[in-house]
Specification:
Layout lengths: L1 E6 L6 E6 L2 E5 L5 H10 L9 E3 L5 H4 L2 H8 L3 E3 L1 H6 L11 E4 L6 E3 L2 E7 L8 E7 L2 E6 L7 H6 L5 E5 L4 H6 L5 H8 L7 H10 L7 E5 L8 H13 L3 H4 L2 H4 E3 L9 E2 L1
Parallel strand pairs: 3-4, 4-5, 5-6, 10-11, 11-12, 12-13
Antiparallel strand pairs: 1-2, 1-14, 2-3, 7-8, 8-9, 9-10
The structure holds zinc ion (2 copies).
Amino acid sequence: MRICILGSGSSGNATLVVAGETRVLIDCGLSGKETMRRIQEVGEDPHKINAIVITHEHGDHASGLHVVAKTVNAPVFISSATLNACKLGDKVKNIKRGDEISSAQDFAVGAIKFHPFTIPHDAADPFAYTLEYQGIKAGMAVDLGYYHGLAAERFRDCDALVLESNYETDMLRACTYYPWSLKQRIMSRQGHTSNDELARFLRDDFDGKAQHVVLAHLSQNSNHPEVARLAAIQALEARSPLFSADAARRVKIANYAAPTDWIDL
Ligand SMILES: [Zn+2]
Ligand SMILES: [Zn+2]
């Protein structure tokens, strides 16, 4: 299984997963044109995508859905609650539906098994998930109020984790770009995850298996890649020497502006 985060942040999220002959695009928060461009940039053919999976209706995850779905001509796996909340109106006609999914039920796309689970986030039916292919497992949660017990349990035994590290609390408080109401939403337990909250997860709940820990959905206004990276590395280093030796090698950053390197599992 190979994973590439095509883009991650409040300006748009999309992830490409390839396992055997199965190619899945997860979330369509970039424009149709940009999604096509980035898929080609990482060496894949957009027209070979077998399915699109949508985690929730927020614009940074679903705004390109109707255009991308039509362009790549792939079925969309989305829950009815999420599709209704997308408010696509007539554009819904552009969408070829895949299986009806929900945040509470496992499903498969070709050779890839998805195990979604409900998360604290202010959307209709949002989910984080693990993916499995031939005994390889990856976990992803890019919009999350906080790392609750279920996330800790589901993310055990993963070979890679893609995890939200949205904001640095002091930077968010001081940020003049956002109104206070938005800051409250971001900081709430239904909002987004801080660098500190991810550090707590890595220190207390992470089982240590994943060799790739990708920090995702970093805010452009209230975070900095090096601040987020350092918080995650320090959290890993605070654990036993077993973890600290290669903490810096494990931690990677997903960027809003460009795809990550392929993560080969
Ligand atoms: Zn969201
Ligand atoms: Zn988001």
